[in-house]
Amino acid sequence: MLKALSLRDFVIVPALELDFAPGFTALTGETGAGKSILIDALQLALGSRGDAAVVREGAARAEITALFDCPAALQGWLDEAGFDTETEAGSNTLLLRRVIDAQGKSRAWINGSAATVAQLREIAEHLLDIHGQHAWQGLTRPASVRALLDEFGQIDTRALAQAHGQWRAAHEALETARGRQAELAREHERLAWQIGELERLAPGADEWETLNAEHQRLSHAQSLMDAVRGALERISEADLNAESLTDEALSSVQEVLGYDARLQDAVSALQGAQAQLQDAAHSLAGYLHGAELDPHRLAELDERLSAWLTLARRYRRQPAELPALLQEWQDERARLDAATDLDTLQKTLDQALKSYQREARSVSAARAKAAPALSQAVTAAMQQLGMAGGAFEVALLAQEQPQSFGLESAEFLVAGHAGSTPRPLSKVASGGELSRIALAIAVTTSQRSAGAGTLIFDEIDAGVGGAVAETVGRLMKQLGQSVQVLAVTHLPQVAACADQHFLVAKALRDGATCSDVRAITGEARVAEVARMLGGERLSSTSLAHAQEMLDLSSRAPATSRPGRKVKP
Q1: Between β-strands 93-101 and 13-19, what pairing exists: parallel, antiparallel or unpaired?
Q2: Average pLDDT in the 214-235 region?
Q3: How far is residue 441 from each of residues 68, 385, 410, 413, 465, measured CA to CA in Å?
Q4: Is 74 within 8 Å of 126 (Cβ atoms)?
Q5: Which residues, listed in sequence order, are joined to residue 519 by a DSSP beta bridge?
Q6: Which terminus of the chain has fewer Cβ atoms in its 10 Å neighbourhood, N or C?
Q7: 0.70 exceeded by the pTM?
Q8: How many angstroms separate the CA atoms of 365 and 378, rounded?
């Protein structure tokens, strides 16, 4: 539910703060006073496109702030998106702010944190549902008709859409395979030959590094052996070697250690050096024992490395990449095998079609149940809206091919009076009839909707009057018992039924035209309803008539409760 709206320098509104109550709220005023400005502002707050034209002339920026009760469905979304779930107005509230500067640049906030316009649009469907005076035009589009029917019947089509996507993917895979058999066969042959070459080489994952290390060792084997033998001689085998010299040095120092304990560190160091020399001599001797010249193994390594390099150059890869290349080609061949297996592809398609048909039949059954219920409900509403004897029908039209929305499309058919044949809504000639039918559909479907908590009717009652207008007012008042309803109207009969009444007026202020909105009650409201009845010149008759209309409306069961005043 919309709780409050604040505007700053928006179009011709310098500053405005409004608090909204539950139930039915009417917005009235003279033609051109700017009654739709509030709706335009709400749409911007919920992510519609805005530009510099919305900034009041001479101002630096326009600012719109809207406070809503936060629907339970949005609590998880706010947490996931990183927005606070509480505002200064309390918990379970949603504060939206949009600023557009004189250069057309836009910024947005949700509960005080920066947001994108796309995020505003994402949450809009949970907050507002707007029906304009040309709402009937959307009711001629099959997608809109189907969406209304599914919403009315509370039909979930997500599983159906997913099943259709799987069927379509399977169908495309089979058709592609059939059309590309020769091409895929050539590709398979090419891959098989390339894979054969690499499989004959059988490159190991780390083999390239291992081969290079072994080749380097064997190709320098003589140099390695000579260096090791020379080192071993100097450490322990020569007449004057490191081990014997170290022993002599250790003995010399140990003889005088008793005279000065400070030599202990030197003794320990010499003992350590002695042990390390012995370890080194042992390691070098072991190396020489196992070392040998192996020209046969070196030739084998040369041949193996040459094979690696040949294939690496041929396929323009680094030698170390050959194992990964082999795996890549093997995976690609497996995909080609699957793509050319027409029997398996056909079985996959058949299974996908069965799954789709199962979901589609379930949706079709639900629509077949919902269509007559919606037809009866809208037909009943039409009788109250001056179309006695008229009939409304939801026609389900079978589709030749599986569609993402199911096995049938939907169309609204209307008979304007008794005895006439229902025809498509787009062929109903009367603009008044179209508006009334759209209103009947909006009221009927909105009562079953589990979506937006606020419904806005923007002059949807255009083209009606008299007793029908009274019915429109009663319907909106009735609808206000379950959801918040805001209606821009020019009909006094509708305005008189409102639980809350705002008057929109235009005036000159400091040489500039400004629009102002204020809540009216008592005599002010009587005067406004009288103006709507008889024009600017108020007579005692029009005032009395206005008072009577308001009295009659007030005797109806209360539909609203006092709203808590919250500053945005």
Answers
A1: unpaired
A2: 85
A3: 26, 11, 14, 12, 18
A4: yes
A5: 502
A6: N
A7: no
A8: 21
